[in-house]
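Field reference: sequence -> structure
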Amino acid sequence: MNIEKIHIDGFGQFNQLSIDDLRPGLTIFKGNNEAGKSTLLSFIRCMLFDFPGARSASKFYPPLAGGNHGGRLVISTDSNERCVIERYTGNKNNVKVTFDNGLTGADAELSKLLNYMDKDIFNNIYAFGLDELQRFETLNNENIRANIYSAGTGTGRVSISDVQKNLKNSVEVLYKKRGRNPEINQIINTIEDMDRQISDIKNDQARYDSLHADKQMRSNTINLLKDERSNIQKKLNNIHNLISIWDDWKNLQDAQINLCDLPKIEDFPEKGVDILERILEKIRDVEETILLLEEKSQNNRAQQERIIIDEELLTQRDTIMDLSNGIEKYRSEKDLLPEQNQKLKDEHLIFLELLNDLGPKWDEEMLNRFDRSIPAKETVIQKRKLIDEVKDQIEKFQTHLTQVNLDIKKIDDDVNRINENIDSTSVTITYEEINRKLEALRNLRQKYPILIEKESELKNIQKEEAFFTAVQPAITQTIQKAPIWPAGVMFLIGIIGFVYGYYSGTILFGSVIFILLCISAVAYYASTRQNTPISKENTNGTAISQEDPKEIRNYSNIEQQLVDEITSLKDQMLNYATSCGFDNIPEPALLEKRDMELQETAYAVKELSGLQDECNKLLKKRNELTKESEELKKTLYNKQQSLLSIDTEWKEWLLSYDLDPTLSPESILEIFSTIKSCYEKQKTINTLKFQINTTENSIHTYEERIQTLLKQCQRTPCGLSFDMDLQKMRDDVEGALNQTQQLNQLDTAYEDLMRDLSTAKNRYGNLNIELSDLLSSGHSDNEDMFRKNARIWEVRLELHTRIQRLTKHIKKVSGDGELYDNFIGDLEKSNIFDLKTNEEKYKDRLGELDNELSNNLDDRGAIHNQIEQLEHHEEGSKLRMEREIKNEQLHNRSRNWAALVIAQEILNKAIEIYEKERQPAVIIEAQSFFTNFTAERYKRIYSPLDSADIFVEDRDGKVKGIDQLSKGTKEQLYLALRFGFIRYFGKQSEAIPIVFDEILVNFDPVRSQNAGNAIRELAATNQILFFTCHPDTVEILTDASPEAQVIDLDNCCED
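Structure field:
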């Protein structure tokens, strides 16, 4: 979603303010203090989430400059839909949402556009200023916390901290650090008292004190070395800064000197030389225009004087034009007449040739007497059709008869081949017998696994019976009674595993661990309360109690039953084997071989049966074809006789019309076609004769009209042709008309030239005045002096820009205000040679200090080790015995405490894994931004489970809370958390516009640039409106996002 336009009717200092054409991405609003940046931020909040109430902490902005309190926003969604949001105070439903299609809505539609976001989230995450950024409470709102820290835990309403608290209370009942009342604390305090007494009776007290004194002296030395090292490091850093900026400092001095050497010019027109050149160019153009217009006006008058119009010729204009319109027709008829005569001659010759094609006896009279009626032609067509049909039938029957004879011969060949195959096959068994043997073979194969299984069971029963006979007098052993507390530990760990599985989303795994540990605890507890007889395992691995003699007595019955079943099974298998052709029960391999033989025999029997069936079908088909062949021969003879009869009738018909009896029906039809062509040629000849007569009459009438016109115009014919005389008169008329039109155009053009000449002279005067004003604004009397001042002004501007850039670069290193002045003072007092010499000297001293510091640390460690040895090796025997008794008491009291500590540790490990690996998605997104802000000084952000506290981890692995961070780093952390929220929820729904007000004030230059890059990255998905009064911030943002839109609020408000 993007805001395209902001219109304020009345809000704070603004009245009828419109800001149009806001683009997606980053838009920067710059303006001085009190330009209205915070007012605009509050206006956007109010438009989207209502005006603040009387009890609200938000500032109320009444319309100080007049107008209705409120305004409107024009927004566009990601789906390219536009709508207008209007809100004014004083109405019950003070918001109105108007869509492109004309529909309107209120709060419900606006909430849907904002993805149902509430006011707190928008004001603290999407639209905020420096005050909100500096206060962590703005992120600690209950609704915001629920959105930021709930993702990923899966705990619902169960509080992990409550579980930790209960475990902690249980532990502290037995032991508490720095506690006095718990039993373990009391025992520990007693042991510590004994340790102090043992320390008091040490023999070498003098040496002990001396070692402590040496240790303190070493510590003092180490502190002094660290202080000196810190001071030298500061000096070295300052020298590094001076050396790094030395070239810029020298360039700054040179620029300031060059600026002082230039003549002083208070002001100069922007792009003055370009303006001068444009004015001079315009003056030259106007001068050329004036000369050209004067020359054109003189030429116009001369042309008017040369034009002479023949008025007499124009009186016959209509008659001439009418005859001219028909001149093409006249010429066409003149050209067409010889062609028509020639065509008439040609058509007559073709007509004679057609008659000759009909025969030597044919002439025009015979042609007219010939019967060319449709019935006569239809008679010929029917005869031809009948003859063709009979011939086609004869050919068809002959082809069919040939094919039938070929089929009979092929069937005879196939029958002979099949009989040969049947004679070569020697199979005597039937297909039913083969199926019976295959069925017996399948039954035999099915019984084989059952026989093997029964025999195996018999062997196992016999082994178990022998085993029971051997182990009957078993010896009972008793398990030593064990302490109860391990059962409690296992039960408690099971509960913790179940809770962890429930919270971590692995409830099945947690449930299994809980059940197994509970069963183990119960079993262990039962084993400590009774003696359990030892069981033995039989040969199958089955546990068998010695107290079950009844089971031993049943083995003989089971064995006899298995023997009977095996005997019956073998009898059945022998019957099946006999059916398959075996004398005894065969091996499994023989069964497979016999199955293959039977399958091959079955295939051969089936193939033989198929050959016999095929042979019978072929013989039946041969009889049918033989009968069909006889019938075809009879039909063919009848058709041939019919054809002879038709031919006789046709010849008789030709003789009746006095035609050659050898002619075929096709020839007669062709004669009909030729006679038709002759009649068409007769018609064409008559038509041509009529056209020639009409053309000659038209030509004569047109020539008489031209002769009459020549007499009226008093012109003599040229003697060549009438059309040339007419064309000459037409050309003269058109020439006279053109001259008349040309004279009118010249008059109009002369008037236009006079107006243009007057305008050009006025323009020339105005340009001279403009040139004089420009020279005056550039403090010049002429053009050369103006150009010289322009060059001086450009050099001064360049030097000013260079001085500002170098000064800004130096301030980035030194800082502003007094820090900058001190830094410049150091540069003025220094030279580059001395700086580099001091740099090497300080580096050498740092190395010496590091060596001394390392040696003193090693010495102090050795002294500490000697002190510890004295403390541990000098103890009284009596106190030692009493101390051992107390230690035993401590051990006995600590067993239950140990179980609780183990459970607490398991839960803490689970929490630690969560904090490192399963942080909320918002925190993970924020972590990337915070790492980039701090130039990777801090690598991780995490939030403890079920807590709103935030911690950061630097690149050395050190964890810090918010209170341990500097003010600027806190703001960067809070900004990263907001960016993380925006980025995460932008993936879930449509992106919402973001509004920032002076959020980079406390960022150093490097982190400001990093934040600018992060804002550019965020602007790729969300529209960002950034309010600031700092030019440096504008420069950082535009450097990071060159495409950013910059709006000056000062100019906007003045407009």
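Note: Residues 333 and 694 are 10 Å apart (CA to CA).
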